[in-house]
């Protein structure tokens, strides 16, 4: 009885994995331009057609964005994040927050039961960095600390799928929240809602943690509504 021949994966699939690995590792961060075709051909030791096929596939998946006359840029770190950006990036913050509200509440509920004390202490440190960064006017550091807190709660839930889904909202969510962060009166150093959530986690109160997580997202939705109000009065204004 003869065996079926072992089929070697297409070379373009290997190139796709190589590019994806560089993106996932942070070697090519979101927003950066990847090397031009000749350099990719040299690094990967493949023909131009193979590089183009791989780039087209990753652009279709949402990881890359081809800008004619300018180059190819990293759009997202995963297919899921890229799909969210591609499908809902122009829909504003509202739809993303509706999804996040559900994930935040469930993550907080589970974290109240499963998080260990070391993790809770790390969340407290993230909150301290969040406030310090805002007061220092370091917006990028504030974004990083704020997301570290929320992603930390999601990870503390102890459900890898929930954490993966949550973290893939980061890139489109940050982009969509640009207007909200710029809204006059937005107080990014206010720790009340976040400290209340952390307190509920420390008290092992699943219902209280879920309620506070939902309230935090509701506050963000309120700020987003305020940010969009002036634009609603200017129908020809375009979102940045």
Automatic annotation (TrEMBL):
Pfam families: FCD, GntR. Residues 9-77 form the HTH gntR-type domain. It comes from the Bacteria. Residues 226-240 have a biased composition (Low complexity). The keyword DNA-binding applies. Keywords: DNA-binding, Transcription, Transcription regulation. Residues 202-240 are annotated as: Disordered. The keyword Transcription applies. InterPro entries: GntR_C (IPR011711), TF_FadR/GntR_C (IPR008920), Tscrpt_reg_HTH_GntR (IPR000524), WH-like_DNA-bd_sf (IPR036388), WH_DNA-bd_sf (IPR036390). GO terms for molecular function: DNA binding; DNA-binding transcription factor activity. Gene3D superfamilies: GntR ligand-binding domain-like, Winged helix-like DNA-binding domain superfamily/Winged helix DNA-binding domain. This is FadR family transcriptional regulator.
């Amino acid at each position: 009885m003869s065996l079926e021949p072992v089929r070697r994966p297409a070379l373009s699939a290997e190139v796709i994995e190589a590019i994806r690995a560089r993106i996932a590792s942070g070697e090519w961060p979101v927003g950066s331009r990847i090397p031009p075709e000749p350099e990719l051909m040299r690094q990967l030791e493949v023909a131009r057609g193979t590089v183009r096929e791989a780039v087209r596939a990753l652009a279709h998946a949402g990881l890359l964005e081809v800008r004619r006359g300018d180059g190819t840029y990293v759009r997202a770190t995963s297919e899921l994040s890229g799909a969210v950006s591609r499908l809902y990036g122009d829909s504003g913050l509202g739809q993303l927050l509706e999804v996040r509200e559900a994930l935040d509440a469930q993550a907080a509920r589970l974290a109240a039961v499963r998080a260990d004390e070391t993790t809770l202490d790390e969340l407290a440190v993230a909150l301290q960095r969040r406030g310090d960064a805002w007061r220092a006017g370091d917006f990028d550091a504030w974004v990083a600390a704020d997301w570290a807190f929320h992603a930390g709660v999601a990870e503390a839930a102890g459900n890898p799928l929930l954490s993966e889904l949550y973290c893939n909202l980061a890139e489109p969510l940050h982009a969509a929240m640009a207007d909200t962060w710029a809204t006059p009166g937005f107080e990014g150093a206010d720790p009340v809602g976040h400290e209340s959530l952390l307190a509920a986690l420390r008290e092992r109160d699943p219902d209280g943690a879920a309620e506070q997580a939902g309230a935090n997202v509701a506050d963000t939705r309120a700020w987003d509504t305020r940010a969009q109000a002036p634009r609603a009065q200017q129908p020809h204004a375009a979102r940045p």
